[in-house]
Amino acid sequence: AQSVTQLDSQVPVFEEAPVELRCNYSSSVSVYLFWYVQYPNQGLQLLLKYLSGSTLVKGINGFEAEFNKSQTSFHLRKPSVHISDTAEYFCAVSRMDSSYKLIFGSGTRLLVRP
Amino acid sequence: DSGVTQTPKHLITATGQRVTLRCSPRSGDLSVYWYQQSLDQGLQFLIQYYNGEERAKGNILERFSAQQFPDLHSELNLSSLELGDSALYFCASSGPDRGTDTQYFGPGTRLTVL
Does B60 lie at the interface with A, CB-CB under 8 angstroms? Predict the structure, then answer.
């Protein structure tokens, strides 16, 4: 079975500061990795995904994530956040070899303060 | 706008009742996934359909059922509703049945059971 852990339920940060949202996963088989963002009262939007190749993945809105196989991590980073980045961020995995259902972490609420 | 539509946006009903949630996938997408988002369980995969056939099942209660029609829209039926079924229900769609395909999420249906 797969599982995803997002240790930080909330991350407060000041505007224009860098941020890192942590994600660790557990799986006995190879997985694809995703970060989704959910703005208030909206659905989920894909930020970025890791399928294979370069371990540094760039996504939308200036976000990037690095896949670390040895540490089974896929942390999300942004060098300078904006007020508009305030949202809930979800890390997710899907197996490479069967149903591609997404297994989500519990989410991290990013709160950007002026 | 992800291209995935869900109706209704909000649904308020009473315990013991039955409701139907509807999802129209993006044009050309063959896979439809249903997820439930609740405060205590987080985001959980319920069921997946591919081109009209059930492909995978998650933690879906026996009181819940789904189907995908020839025009590829999908319906999630929830019966004998309980207070604990109150949640946000998302539908997502993706293209050919490959794990590399992005799942695009609809805006969700908020179900409130009183």
Answer: no
Phi and psi (nearest 5°) for A62? Answer: 80, 5
Please state, in angstroms and rounded to a whole number, the distance separating the CA atoms of residues A8 and A107.
8
B58's tokens: 């998650």
- B chain contacts of residue A100, beta-carbon cutoff 8 Å: 31, 48, 94, 97-99, 101, 103
Q: Cα separations (Å) of B70 from A92, B11, B28, B73? A: 30, 26, 13, 8
Closest alpha carbon to B47 in B36, B37, B39, B38: B36
In this complex, the residue of B44, B55, B99 whose CB is nearest that of residue A94 is B99
| B97/A106 Cβ within 8 A | no
Backbone angles phi, psi at A88, to 5 degrees: -100, 135
Binned at pLDDT 50, 70 and 90, residue A53 comes out as: confident
Among candidates B31, B90, B101 on the partner chain, residue whose Cβ is nearest the Cβ of A44: B90
Q: What angle do CA B97, A45, A86 make, to 5 degrees?
A: 160
pLDDT tens per residue across span B60-92: 999 999 999 999 999 999 999 999 999 999 999
Across the interface, do A43 and B106 touch by the CB < 8 Å criterion?
yes
Dist. CA A48–CA A45, nearest whole Å: 9
3-state SS assignment for residue B35: strand
- Give the whole-number percent of chain A exceeding pLDDT 70: 97
